[in-house]
Amino acid sequence: METNAATSSRMARVRNRDTAAELAVRRELHKRGRRYFVQRAVLPGRRRVDVVFPGPKIAVFIDGCFWHSCPQHATRPKANAEWWAEKLARNVARDRQSDADLAAAGWQVMRIWEHVPASAAADMIEAALDNVRAD
Questions:
Q1: Coiled coil located at which positions (predicted)?
Q2: 108-125 pLDDT, tens digit each
Q3: Which class in CATH covers the domain with range 11-134?
Q4: Cα gap 48→63, rounded to integer Å
Q5: What is the pLDDT of residues 25-70, one digit of tens each?
Q6: 109 partner at 20 to 30 Å CA-CA among 4, 15, 29, 37?
Q7: Is 97 left (phi over 0), alpha (psi -120 to 50) or beta?
Q8: What is this structure's pTM?
Q9: Beta bridge partners of 82
């Protein structure tokens, strides 16, 4: 894949953790008194989970619309279109594999799109936490 200097510089600045959406959700959960771990690998050799509640075994991913192919907001670059299509498809496949691996190990996996307001995301997470504790 050929890239120009501007594209290369822009891509180097893309965060893979502590994104604005992640920080907003974490702030909201903390404000509500919820405590959690951040960027933790819960299975050997697996990718890190954005927000982890180890006791109730809930793993929360805050997925970016572009990188994880949001059905509402995903865009496809025009330059190097084939390469990007393959890259984004690999991301989605890796996500599904991570979901399956975590579920097989007894974890509840939550995937929340970055466009979901932090308060709504925290509501969903709290409902899952309350449901686990009620069982």
A1: none
A2: 999 999 999 999 999 999
A3: alpha beta
A4: 13
A5: 999 999 999 999 999 999 988 689 999 999 999 999 999 999 899 9
A6: 15
A7: alpha
A8: 0.86
A9: none
